[in-house]
Amino acid sequence: MNIIKNLVDKSKYGIKCPFVMTATRIVVHETANDASAENEIAYMRRNDKESSFHFAVDDKQIVQGIPLDRNAWHAGDGNGKGNREGIAVEICYSKSGGERWQKSVDNAARFIAELLKERNWGVDKVTKHQDYSGKNCPHRILSDYGWNNFVNLVSNYLNEEDKPVSVPTNKKISVIYQVWDDVRNAWLPVVTDLTDYAGIYGHDVCAVFAALSRGNIFYKVHIKGGRWLPEVKNREDYAGLYNKPIDALMMRTDTGRTIKYAVHLRRSGRWLPFVTGYNEKDSNNGFAGILGQEIDAIKIYIE
Ligand SMILES: [Zn+2]
Hints:
Elements: E1 3-5, H1 13-16, E2 25-30, H2 37-46, E3 55-57, E4 62-64, H3 81-85, E5 86-91, H4 99-119, E6 126-128, H5 130-133, H6 139-145, H7 147-158, E7 175-181, E8 186-187, E9 191-192, E10 198-199, E11 205-212, E12 217-223, E13 232-233, E14 239-240, E15 246-253, E16 259-265, E17 270-271, E18 275-276, E19 295-302
Parallel strand pairs: 1-4, 2-5, 2-6, 3-5
Antiparallel strand pairs: 3-4, 7-8, 7-9, 7-11, 10-19, 11-14, 12-13, 12-15, 16-17, 16-18, 16-19
Helix pairs in contact: 4-7
Zinc ion is lined by residues 29, 129, 135, 137.
């Protein structure tokens, strides 16, 4: 993804970024409004408030407003480490949420992974505004997504270089997944492994998003009364069609591990047994679900 530089004028350095900075961390924020990254940075450049941040990320691009060797005022900790040593990343569209917010979160996770990689940092360097001043920020990630799930997503992109995993190790591989809910007309919060299930009993699942902490996941869904949709990989795309209930799911990975997944049937209100990954050559075997029966929740993990 391209970074568009739209830096504050040097005449405003005294207000916006008075100190030279050697960054030691990333500080994640959400804008709590529905402005694009471009508008967010343009507003920051234009006004004479101290409030400032290095990057704004939306569903399409990353815009930079403050140079990385200067501090910004965003963490609410005065001259603490957030403001004086943090690279501030604002994620857009958090007020209303929805698909463009989801995409912005995904882009931000990918971008933060790049920042970490460039500096040889681990995900322990990813912090949130709340850590510095207690503010409920990034608010929608905290409420709808879960901070640990966001860090897992960053971790997933950070480790992407290592893919595919040809030699299995004993290190645990986590599955991060979420479903599109037909009643809410929205993506539900992300779930990791068996800490929860994805879905709401009684609501049809129409689409699935999944990614691994290491390695690739491939998956596809069957539309109720229809056909199998093409296989998708990781979070490059979701499997499903909004507002079309699914009745079967198939998943596989290249990790050398066994993926296990189960679905919950809306009408009979029960979980089917876990099934394991399918073999592409025999691609209509090993699916989870009963054709004709809507799925309202899923569970996935890697053994
Ligand atoms: Zn914030």
